[in-house]
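=== Structure Prediction Worksheet ===
Name of assembly: unnamed complex
Input type: mixed (protein and possibly other molecules)
Chain count: three
Listed entries:
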Amino acid sequence: MFELLGIPPQALFGQLLLGLINGSFYAILSLGLAVIFGLLNIINFAHGAQYMLGAFVAWMLLNYLGIGYWWALLIVPIVVGAFGIVLERLMIARLYHLDHLYGLLLTFGLALIIQGLLRNQYGISGLPYSIPPQLAGGQNLGFMFLPNYRGWVVVASLAVCVATWFVIEKTRLGAYLRAATENPTLVGAFGINVPRMITLTYGFGVALAAFAGVLAAPVYSVNPNMGADLIIVVFAVVVIGGMGSILGSIVTGFGLGLVEGLTKVFYPEASSVVIFVIMAIVLLVKPAGLFGRAA
Amino acid sequence: MSAANHTAASHAAPAPVAAGRASATGMPRHHAAIFLALLAAGLAAPFFLYPVFLMKVMCFALFACAFNLLLGYTGLLSFGHAAYFGSASYISAHAAKVWGLPPELAILSGVAAATVLGLVIGALAIRRQGIYFAMVTLAFAQMVFFFSLQAPFTGGEDGIQAVPRGMLFGFINLRSDFTLYFVVLAIALGGMLAIYRIIHSPFGQVLKAIRENEARATSLGYRVNRYKLATFVLSAAFAGLAGGTKAIVFQLASLTDVHWSMSGEVVLMTLIGGMGTVFGPIVGAAVIVTMQNYLATFGAWVTIIQGVIFVVCVLLFREGIIGVFQKWIKKPL
Amino acid sequence: MTKTGFLLASLAASLMATSALAQDITVKIGVLNDRSGIYADLSGEGSVIAARMAAEDFGAAEKGIKVEIVSADHQNKPDVASTIARQWLDQDGVNAIVDVPTSSAALAVNEIIKDANALFINSGAASSDLTGPACSPHTVHWTYDTWALANGTGSAMVQQGGDSWFFLTADYAFGHALERDTAAVVEAAGGKVVGTVRHPFPGTDFSSFLLQAQASGAKVIGLANAGGDTINSIKQAAEFGITQAGQALAGLLIFITDVHALGLQTAQGLVLTESFYWDLNDGTREWSARFEAADGDKPTMVQAGVYAGVLHYLKAVEAAGTNEADAVIAKMKEMPTDDPLFGKGEIRADGRKVHDMYLFRVKSPEQSSGAWDYYETLATIPADKAFRPMADGNCPLVK
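=== Predicted Assembly ===
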């Protein structure tokens, strides 16, 4: 049996697959951030909190209303997305004429509030959320045991990412969106309600975060801090991919998941910094990000 | 920071010129009066309030002033200033405890470390603008955090504990909170005055020009990046001074000081006090530290209240406390 | 002041001995812990309730001792802990600080208490340095420490047949210490360590590391991490079928609140060491029922430790007839401890409270008879073997 860099190839495949699974979360989250940034020019620091909120709402649906995972996958993004729309109308909309940085600071404050409230209510240890029975168990792939649920995560997130990309790049609605990003006044002159489109876009970006939250609930601990540390990594992913680039954020999300997976095998100690190192290098060499247009 | 600073700038920018009636030191009279009042309050305060608490306020006030030099006067939002504050606090603690240096040299080693770190990170970060700049500083600060977590000398989660306060200049014993208080007062006021001098020097005028219109400053022949880098390094150095002093006061250095939430806190202090004002960060730091201290009993509500303050400040109160006040008295503060 | 204080105290004590009711002492106890962060559930408000219960059960009011309890949140930050502790001692006249989870915060308070006229009864922190190199004449470490956990889980697991270990270690000082201590115990007991992987702290995805652990073929996977990291490791180990495939998971720092959060379905089979469980005997059941009525949850060992520590402290105050720190700590170490939660025990010269520790295994959902019925006892580690021998601790007080 040959070995690759001292690791049996089977083990390497396994680790790459795991990297891809983590990449799915990065991809959905960074996609949401990229959509919001592209149209609203807002860095949504509350994205991590909204992801966490998604997991919590799924838990609440199950425990208070008896609504299971599959319905949660549909309902939670709508509920949390609507919450996002309220936030946008009440607060964020007032900041569009100001510098980007105020959006960052406002959403940072919102994240603190959301996390704090849930922490007061549900404590910090986390809440249990089981894998839906249809996806329990796993497949023995020969080189590794793949839990069915993890496979589902990759499929679901790929589907969502591709659908989003398709809508934005290939449909008429997407064309309006992209045009509004370039020149909102002109698009408004054509009779399109730009502010409403912006509001709905923010709601959609938040809904993506909530969707990722529901996907994550059975795998990670459902606790108020689950988004806080993840969000900084996702920022890095967005910056590497190119701020506002849809395709860039998807490809970088999956790609960095793979890179991180490999680091965990060859040099586990560095797996938390590797993304930041890549980000620093990319910013210095190609400041607009791998897929971004030069500003 | 364009739009934000228009409000602040229209009041703050003409400060040294328009405020006219300068005192002998070149400082407008009402500024000199405020500094004197701060000194007087500083000298009297420990007789009424708890000295350790006051020292904490002063360390953070200096930290916020250092941060404001960068955000308020150059328009650069660093989301990773905890890196300089925290690394200085680690180096000072290590210098005092392991190398056995006296406190003044320990703090200076911390400042030196923060300066070097600021030079390296600053040189890379100033090549980007706006949000990218904030992201790069955040990324580097995360790297500093992970380094502090893993490096053997920092003691991981335990931090560096039991740091001796030592003998200042070899003969002033800092063991008593009272003695130490006046040393910290001197450091903090000295640091703030130095920052004040920088802001109101010709150098500081160029910084404001960059903040208002970078392209124009470039076209006037200023090497904008050099000015930005110099400010970044100065800001890091003063943040280091604050961090090193804090390590001596609390006799410990820990991960809290390098965590990204510390970077967020210093933004909050500057924002609530009034960015781009001389005295705003001092007020902001006092408000936040007092709040943390007296709300400690309420547990998680501290974070929620901080979040609410952030939101309210950004939506309704962008000029901050001092910003509003200076509009009211029609004099730049 | 120490000497005169002590003389006065013993004088007072001998006078009071005749008329205990006549004494009129005020003690102020400060419960300093995490009320918003990762340790809020296992200490937090529950510890304040426990301290209050101790004052009531002791009957402080009838004995002429006025007990006042204050509390604060240190947010797991050592500098916040240090500010609050200094203020309590210098300004508010607090006589004893209790609980203080998070090693860094506990060590900071420990430094301050050394020179203060007050005591520190730690229940929440894990660091065995508190009774080792950093030990203080005014500190009692009540409930557990890293050495006891490593020792309990390490040696008992080997005895149960788990003789080959793979460590999943949080990559910072605490994780390294836990791994080092446990590995030493495992090897001393005749087991061997086949591998180790350091994961970043804090982490969210452990599947990669767990697969490495699985590939090693070790019988036991030791989790040298804490809090959310441990919870996520266990959750993902269940997901990847690692426990079902026959490898045992050993949590080196895990509390009943963590098991509660995981649910039995996920946590079943996990082996861990604790010093207290609500369902050990009649005494623990009775107290825990009262605690649950006030708090809403069953108590953790940290909260139990706060109760027992405060109770013993008040007994010592009564016996010493004063709240002077040196007199009270002398009494605390002199009198054997006895309470319904930890049974009989003692406080050693280095400040270490010793009592039995227990090795538990988490029940499967079928074995459990209902809410909070989580543990079955695998072994009792007797008090004299449960903690690090005083001579090995390098505590300057006992040199």
